[in-house]
Specification:
CATH architecture of the largest domain: 3-Layer(aba) Sandwich
Helix content: 25-40%
CATH class of the largest domain: Alpha Beta
CATH superfamily of the largest domain: P-loop containing nucleotide triphosphate hydrolases
Number of strands: 27
Strand order of the largest sheet: 6-7-5-8-9-4-13-12
Number of helices: 19
Largest sheet: 8 strands, parallel
Distance between the termini: 80 Å
Radius of gyration: 30 Å
Shape: globular
């Protein structure tokens, strides 16, 4: 190669060529031309050696990459779960739009993915824990998150290579800085960070992970042509920083050209022109994001994106041949609750908890999967979070022992920052007797146990306080039936459909072919729900049924105003209406499910007793095991129900 007179070397990712040994090896070839290609020139690159610069701002303005949309919340919710749920909501809208676009154009599908950027492995693991919790988005993403960092197994890195495949199970990638170079997928549609500011996320290395167009050009469907960026800032903060953010999209275009000088000779020179992609504030009446970066509120953007996606979908109306379903609307009123630690008058549960732990600290605390830890948000506010963690610490060797008074103070801080405890000065005095009863129960093992298992002990204490709060909570007030309305909501059909009602189950698919459903298409959260629907559809005593969607039949279940949305309504030939809820076996004993169960039964009793209703309503709670045991029998399922 050294002997070649016309050797040209193209150095991709040229910024990596500045290592001494590698650089010398390339230059020893004495190429006729060494042409470097990079999105991020090395700081040692002489400015006069850059012969062509095509900045990101130009690519955005020319619509050769996705248009960034920078979003923040209007309200004060800054917790990690809310931020991730915002990202998931946008991701799901894009997935629906993608399915419709692929169905209409025949293009190859590529599943939209969210990239969550974490600064440390600990935070990456925490994000993965939140997403994997059954309470996050109904458990829909528990098995769909891929965590990538230096300690990640080879299987995770292998899965990263197949992220664009239509059958990839993953929808969220949590990364600790390993994806900044050499990872060139086209289906990252949302970039999120729980800690970094939007300014940090708008670097070309990070933003570039999500800018590539999956179909090589704009689709004309805005939600598919944009990349949403969520940092830690609220919407108002983004507006205040609009000028600074705008600078991220102002750059210059450079090219080297040959011109003739006064002597008639061709000489190289550099032409430079400014490029300003600008940054716009989304108008309330609509978002325009084609080649112009936009700042928008999460709330407005999701609502407008929902409208865009709905416009792509087919409407489903209730069957005309079914008897009208009339829904009682019950007046339900939350009851104000001002729980205080001073309301706890029985201290035995706390001393009993201490005694139980002291009798078998390793066994008892290893069985506690929850730990408590105090975290501080960006505003400096402290709170206690309960986290799931495997018990690996040993009581026999906790290291240096904490003085008991220091351990007591730590317990106090954990409890006072717990969600169940109001931020009132009087709570600091009220917490004392509870802590003292707990420590008294621990007895002479208090110092050892609290030194080795502080976070688990605090979690147990907070759980006992939460139980006391739940017992104190006032139930919502149910009064008269305000009206009885026809149930005729319009659904939006799913892009992907199936007539296979018993084969492999897939979330998000519209199942067609039911004879007694109110709609031509139904979708479910689990295969057990679909099996229950098959039971309803095949029962001679069932006239018709419907799968409820959020907001169809909200039932107030807590005094704090929280609502519960059941799964089905089943109408029998004798006119009896059953509200049916399907739960996983492991959820059946949870306190929340029990409270919802009681609230729904109260609702059924109240509406059945009202003269305006003229029908009997009942509530049935069934588990996976109940559905399986019923073996296709509606009569058997009713008997098994709680």
């Amino acid at each position: 190669l050294q002997e070649s007179a016309d050797l040209l070397v193209f150095a991709d990712e040229h910024h990596a060529y500045y290592g001494r040994s590698f650089s010398n090896a390339i230059r020893d070839l004495s190429p006729h031309v060494l042409l470097g290609l990079t999105a991020t020139p090395h700081r040692q690159t002489p400015e006069d050696e850059i012969i062509y610069r095509y900045p990101l701002a130009a690519a955005i303005a020319d619509k050769l990459v996705k248009t960034p949309v920078i979003v923040g919340r209007k309200d004060d919710r800054t917790d990690a779960t809310t931020k991730l749920l915002d990202g998931v909501a946008l991701l799901e809208l894009k997935e629906r739009a993608m399915a419709r676009y692929v169905a209409e154009t025949g293009a190859s599908p590529t599943p939209p993915v969210m990239l969550v950027v974490a600064p440390t492995i600990d935070e990456a693991n925490e994000v993965s824990r939140i997403i994997g919790d059954p309470s996050f988005a109904g458990g829909a993403y528990a098995e769909r998150v891929l965590t990538i960092h230096s300690d990640a197994p080879d299987e995770a890195l292998a899965a990263l290579e197949t992220l664009e495949a239509p059958d990839t199970p993953h929808r969220i990638v949590v990364s600790v800085g390993m994806l900044k170079e050499g990872w060139d997928v086209k289906n990252v549609y949302v970039i999120c960070s729980l800690r970094a500011s939007v300014s940090d996320l708008l670097t070309e290395q990070t933003l570039g992970r999500g800018l590539r167009l999956p179909f090589g050009e704009y689709t004309g469907i805005e939600i598919l042509d944009t990349l949403e960026v969520l940092g830690h800032e609220r919407y108002e903060q983004l507006l205040r920083k609009a000028g600074v953010l705008n600078e991220k999209f102002i750059d210059r275009r450079t090219r080297a050209v040959l011109v003739r000088n006064a002597e008639g000779s061709l000489v190289p020179t550099t032409e430079t022109s400014a490029v300003d992609a600008g940054i716009a504030i989304a108008a309330e009446e609509g978002i325009t994001a084609e080649g112009t970066p936009v700042i928008a509120s999460v709330e407005d953007y999701k609502a407008q994106a929902e409208q865009q996606v709905e416009a792509l979908q087919t409407e489903l109306h209730p069957r005309d041949d079914a008897e009208p379903l009339r829904i009682p609307r019950l007046r339900m009123t939350p009851v104000a609750n001002h729980f205080s630690l001073a309301d706890i008058t029985e201290y035995d549960p706390f001393s009993t908890l201490g005694k139980r732990i002291a009798s078998d600290p390793q066994g008892e605390l290893r069985r506690m999967r929850l730990s408590a830890r105090i975290v501080e948000d960006a505003a400096g506010l402290r709170r206690t979070e309960l986290v799931t963690a495997a018990a690996v610490d040993l009581v026999e060797s906790p290291g240096s022992l904490l003085p008991l008074e220091d351990a007591r103070r730590s317990l106090v801080e954990h409890v006072l920052n717990a969600p169940a405890v109001a931020a009132r000065a009087a709570e600091r005095n009220a917490v004392g007797p509870l802590i003292d009863s707990f420590i008294e129960g621990l007895g002479d093992k208090a110092t050892t146990v609290l030194s080795g298992f502080m976070e688990r002990a605090a979690a147990g204490l907070i759980a006992a306080i939460t139980d006391a709060q739940r017992a104190f909570d006032s139930k919502p007030s149910y009064e008269e039936v305000v009206e009885v309305t026809d149930f005729r909501p319009i659904r939006l059909a799913k892009p992907e459909t199936s007539n296979d009602l018993v084969g492999g189950f897939k979330r998000g698919v519209g199942y067609e072919g039911y004879k007694k459903s109110l709609y031509a298409q139904d979708w479910f959260d689990s295969s057990t729900e679909r099996t229950a629907a098959n039971i309803f559809d095949q029962a001679d005593e069932v006239s018709y049924w419907t799968r409820l969607q959020r907001g169809d039949l909200p039932i107030l279940w807590s005094g704090a105003g929280r609502e519960y949305n059941p799964d089905f309504i089943v109408v029998e030939t004798d006119g009896v209406c059953s509200v049916v809820e399907v739960k996983m076996n492991k959820e059946m004993t949870s306190a929340e499910v029990k409270e919802k169960h009681e609230a729904a039964r109260r609702w059924a009793n109240h509406v059945s007793a009202d003269d305006k209703v003229k029908r009997t309503w009942r509530y049935l709670l069934v588990s996976e095991a109940d559905v399986a045991t019923a073996k296709g029998s509606w009569a058997a399922l009713k008997k098994l129900a709680s």
